[in-house]
Amino acid sequence: MQEALRFRAADAEVVDRAEFIEQARQVRRGAEAPTRGLSLTIRGLRKSFGDNEVLRGIDLHIPAGQSVAIVGRSGCGKSTLLRLIAGLETITAGTISFGEETRAEDVRVMFQEPRLLPWARVLSNVEVGLGRERTSPDAQARADSALVEVGLDDKRAQWPAVLSGGQKQRVALARALVSRPRVLAFDEPLGALDALTRISMQRLLERVWQDQGFTAILVTHDVAEAVALADRVLVIEDGRIAHDIDVNIPRPRRRGSAELAALEGSILKNLLQGTEDTSDL
Amino acid sequence: MSLIESLPRVRRLRFPRADGLIPWIVPLAIILLWQVACVTGFVSARVLPAPSDVALAGWKLLLSGELVRNIWVSFWRASVGFLIGGSIGFTFGLANGLSQLSSKLTDTTLQMVRNIPHLALIPLVILWFGIDESAKLFLVALGVFFPIYLNTLHGIRTVDPQLIEMGRIYGMTDGELFRRVIFPGALPSIFVGLRFALGIMWLTLIVAETIAASSGLGYMAMQAREFMLIDVVVLSILIYALLGKLADSASRALERLTLSWHPAFQKH
Ligand SMILES: Nc1ncnc2c1ncn2[C@@H]1O[C@H](COP(=O)(O)OP(=O)(O)OP(=O)(O)O)[C@@H](O)[C@H]1O
Ligand SMILES: [Mg+2]
Questions:
Q1: In chain B, what residues touch A89 (CB-CB under 8 Å)?
Q2: B257 to chain A: which residues are within 8 Å by CB?
Q3: Is the separation of the CB atoms in A37 and A181 below 8 Å?
Q4: Is 3.40.50.300 the CATH number for A32-102+182-275?
Q5: Is the minimum distance from the CB of A78 to ligand 1 under 6 angstroms?
Q6: Going residue by residue through chain B (268 aa), what tens digit of pLDDT does each one get?
Q7: What number is the ipTM of this complex?
Q8: Domain B53-260, what fold?
Q9: Where are the domains of chain A?
C-alpha cells in the first residue's frame, strides 16, 4: 500500500517533466514530428505459470515518452512483465492499457538475441519490422533510413552472419525502429555485448529515444546502465514493484559521475536488502 | 556432412584454375595404374578388364544405341520414382512438422514402417507388380520417401522458435511465416535428406534392375554376366558411379545456390 502511494506521488512529478521534455522536443523538431510515445497504465497485473505466481499485482503508470528501466534479481519476472506488455503472453489477471488505441506496429520489442533471419540480407531484415506495411512502395526507403539511423547503411546488402554481435543488435534496433513505434520494450538488449560495445550502444539507444520520443521500457541486469539511460528505475521484488526511483540527473549524463554512482549504489543497496528480506521470510 | 566438406580450405592455392583439377588426380592415377596392371598381365583380363577394353565395350554399345537406351530407362525410373517418393515424403514432412494433429495421426505409423528395409519388400513387390515398371518405381519411391520425410520434418521442427516468435511479433501471416522463416530455416536439413535420398535412389534401382527388369543398366549388367562379358559389367558399374556423382553434384549446386546465406557456403 505504502509503495503504491509512493509511486503515485513520484508519478505526478514525472509526468510534468516528461511533458516538459516532450514540449522541448516538439519545439526542436518543429511540426514534422510524427511519432510520440504512448502512455502505459498497468492495474493489478498478475501472471502465473501453473502454480508459479510470477507477478503478484503490478500497478504502474508510465507517462508518454518516458524511459523506464526495470531491474531485479534473475527470475523475478522482468521478462515476463515485458512480454505481457508486448502482448506475447496472456494475462492471468489485471489490465494493461495504452493511452490511445494502438496498432500492432506501435509496440515493438527488442531481445537479448538479435533474432535476425540468417537467410535475409540486412536490408530485408529491417523491412520485416514494417509489419503489414512491408509491401508498401516506400518500404525499402524506410528500411534504408532506419539503417542510416543506426549507422549501418553500408551493410545493407550483407548477410547477418558476417556482422559482429554489436552490429547485429543495431540491425535488430533498426528493425524495431522502422515502423516508428510509440512504445519500445527492450529485454536486456545489450546483455551479450562486450563493455565497449555496450557503452556505444547505450549512447545510440539514448539518441534514438531522444530523437523519436517513444516510450522506452528497458529491462536490464546492469544498474549502472539503468541509471545512465532511464528517467526512472523500477525494482521488482516478489512479483511487485518494490521501489520506484526517479533519476533526476540532467542529460547528457556523464558516465562514471559521482551523482550516477551514488544513485547506483543506493539502488544496489535496495536490491541487496531485498535479498536479505526474502531470506528472512 | 556437406557443411564440413565445404569449410574454407586452410591453405590457399596460387593458381585458382588448378583448384578444380585436383579432385581428379586420384581417379586418373587409379585408372592409369589399373591399365598398367592389366597390360602387364598382373591382373588377368578374366578378373578385371583393362580400362581401354571397358572403353571399347562402351563405344560399341554406344554405337548400337543399346547404352543410351538403357541409361535413359534407368534415368527415367530413377527420376520418376524420386519425384513420386520425394514429393510424398516432403508433403508428409511439411504436414507433420506444421500440424500437431497430422503428426499425431501419421508419425508413429510412418516411424514403424521406416524400420522395414524397403529392399526386403522385393519378393512381395514382384508378386504384386511382376517385373513391370511400377515395381521399380514403387521401390525407388519407397526408398526415397523416408530420408526426405524425416529430414523435412526434423528441419521444420528445429527452426529456431525465437525466430518464429519474432515473425509473429512483426505481424507475419501464417503463409508469410512459412515462406520467410520456417521453410528457409528447414532448408539445410531438407538438403541433407535430398542427398541421402539420391544415394538410396541409385542403390534401390541397381538392386531392383538386377533382380526384376528387362531393360536398364542393371539388366544390362546381368545380361553381360550371363554371357561372361566382364567389360560390360564393369562399364555398367562405372556408369552407375558417374550417374550417382552427377546427381550429387546437381544437388550440391542447388544447395550452394539456395543456401548462399549460410556461413559454410559463403565465398571467401
Ligand atoms: N513460459 C514459461 N513457462 C513457465 N514458467 C515460466 C515461463 N516463463 C517464465 N517462467 C518463470 O517465471 C519466472 C520469471 O521469469 P522471467 O524470465 O520473467 O525472469 P527474469 O526476471 O527475466 O529473469 P532474468 O533476469 O534471468 O532474465 C521464472 O521463475 C521462470 O521460471
Ligand atoms: Mg529475462
A1: none
A2: none
A3: no
A4: yes
A5: yes
A6: 444 444 555 555 555 567 788 888 998 999 999 999 999 988 888 888 999 999 999 999 999 999 999 999 999 999 999 999 999 999 999 999 999 999 999 999 998 988 899 999 988 998 998 878 899 999 999 999 999 999 999 999 999 999 999 999 999 999 999 999 999 999 999 999 999 999 999 999 988 888 878 899 999 999 999 998 999 999 998 998 889 889 999 999 999 988 988 888 876 4
A7: 0.80
A8: MetI-like fold (1.10.3720)
A9: 32-102+182-275, 120-179
In 3D, which of B54, B109, B52, B118 has the Cα closest to residue B81?
B118
Tell whether ligand 1 has an atom less than 6 A from the beta carbon of residue A239: no
**Cell 539511460 -> residue:** A229
B259: its cell numbers: 543456401
Query: Nearest residue CA, atom 26 of ligand 1?
Result: A74
Ligand 1 within 6 A of A54 CB? yes
Which strand ranges, in their side-by-side order, compose the sheet holding A93-98?
A52-62, A40-49, A93-98
Cα-Cα-Cα-Cα dihedral sign, residues A23, A24, A27, A29 = negative
User: How many angstroms separate the CA atoms of A207 and A188, rounded?
Assistant: 18
Chain centroid to Cα A223, Å, comes to 14
CA of A74 to the centre of ligand 1 (A): 8
Residue nearest to atom 17 of ligand 1 (CA): A79
Cell 562402351, residue located: B58
